[in-house]
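Why Reverse transcriptase domain-containing protein? Reviewers of the renewal asked for a concrete example.
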Amino acid sequence: MEAFSRMFGRVVEHGRLEGFMVGGGSGGSVCISHLLFADDTLVLCGVDVSQFRSLKCLLLCFEAVSGLRINLTKSKVIPIGRVDNVQELAGILEYGLSLLPLRYLGLPLGASFKCIHIWDGIIERMERRLAGWKRMYLSKGGRLLSLNLLLRAFQFISLLYSLSRLQWLIGWKRFRGISFGAAMRMCINSTL
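Here is what the prediction returned.
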């Protein structure tokens, strides 16, 4: 996956794909074009047809070099905001089309993280995991503290990975000149 990440970096350097810039303060800015999680990849790019063609070439080159195959049945194009030619873009990659909100890596993506019902499945899974022998080693206060910390972590992860929030970060004007970390702390403090 390191080679795949470097291939992405080269394509972005040559201007064939554009991610989005985060930061810009004294710490510099970072371009995010893709996120890798084990065998899962999230690509963030513009809605230009030429970018999708470049992405298709990149994926075909990766398949040829590595011998790995991309599972087209699991791959989706997920538009953020209004995208007029989304069917055409999905057709270029031969991917399916999905809309927000959805679940990605078990977390709600694109949904408001303040809605209580979206966390029900996650809380239920964590309660099942705490059941059995683990419950014997944690007091009621310990279980509540553990669950509370876990929920706060999921809120933070949801905030980071929510594409609607990423879309908001792209267009921010009032946060120029401060670091990404400081802006994230401001967002977290305002939502808690």
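The chain has two domains: 1-99, 103-192. This is the kind of structural detail the renewal will allow us to pursue systematically.
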